[in-house]
TrEMBL record:
Amino-acid positions noted as binding substrate in the UniProt annotation, renumbered to this chain: Y111
One BP annotation, GO: tRNA pseudouridine synthesis
Name listed for the protein in its UniProt record: tRNA pseudouridine synthase A
Enzyme Commission identifier(s): 5.4.99.12
Subunit structure: Homodimer.
Keyword hit for tRNA processing: yes
Transmembrane segments: none
Gene of this entry: truA
Length: 245
């Protein structure tokens, strides 16, 4: 039995998230369905670096699975992509150590959030970025972002409907980048809580809009109360960009 590590990308627009759910189309369901076909109907379970919600995309999701088949690494890419729907693609496959785990061996992740700032909404961007046509003070957003760096209890930036008790995480980088009409927020850290990046984004947008003082972010963090942070930004602008091992 050989363990394989795969990097996959997917357009989350038409998925009810990553994880298998009864009666719903998910990324895990589609990948496991393709693997079952390769294994002549035998089920093969996959394990991912983490879940993504409905509408959230991935450029660098990592999964692993075990297989008894003697298929070369590069052939797995061709075989899986020939069976997967067009909104999922396997970008690379490599042999992994027997004890490798896509989730538990990850030491960090990068997420990116895309905000389309054109005055008129774009029908081509509606599934891939958040349309925000209002003025933003980018300097204020960058000032606010500096307060997020380091190791903190991020309870204020976690959705209330979670059973995770330890909410301490390290944010290593927050980068606010302007690219024409698109604004990109890059978040790199040890790990992220449920809806954390979307709540961070919503709160940074308030700083940019002038409705929240950038200097108040330390108080929001220390308050450890979800009601102190901003709204949760929509799912369509969020991408799991890279997983670090």
């Amino acid at each position: 039995m050989q363990r394989f590590k795969c990097k996959i990308a997917y357009d989350g627009s038409q998925f009810s998230g990553y994880q298998v759910q009864p009666g719903k189309r998910t990324v895990q369901l589609e990948v496991e369905r393709a693997l079952a076909k390769i294994h002549k109907g035998n089920p093969v379970k996959i394990f991912a670096s983490g879940r993504t919600d409905a509408g959230v995309h991935a450029r660098g999701q990592v999964i692993h699975f075990d297989s008894p088949l003697a298929i070369p690494e590069d052939r797995w890419v061709t075989a899986l992509n020939s069976l997967l729907p067009k909104d999922i693609a396997v970008e690379s496959t490599e042999k992994a150590a027997e004890g490798f785990h896509a989730r538990f061996d990850a030491c960090g992740k990068e997420y990116r959030y895309f905000i389309y700032r054109g005055k008129i909404r774009s029908p081509f961007e509606r599934h891939y970025s958040y349309h925000y046509p209002h003025p933003l003070d980018i300097r204020a957003m960058r000032e606010a972002a500096e307060h997020l760096l380091g190791t903190h209890d991020f309870s204020s930036f976690c959705a209330s409907r979670t059973d995770v008790e330890d909410k301490v995480r390290e944010i290593r980088k927050v980068h606010v980048e302007e690219a024409g009409e698109m604004l990109e927020l890059h978040f790199t850290g040890s790990g992220f809580l449920y809806n954390m990046v979307r709540i961070l984004t919503g709160t940074l947008l308030e700083a940019g809009a002038g409705t929240r003082d950038p200097g108040s972010f330390p108080e929001v963090i220390s308050g450890r109360d979800r009601s102190l942070a901003g709204k949760t930004a929509p799912a369509e602008g969020l991408y799991l960009w890279k997983v670090f091992y």
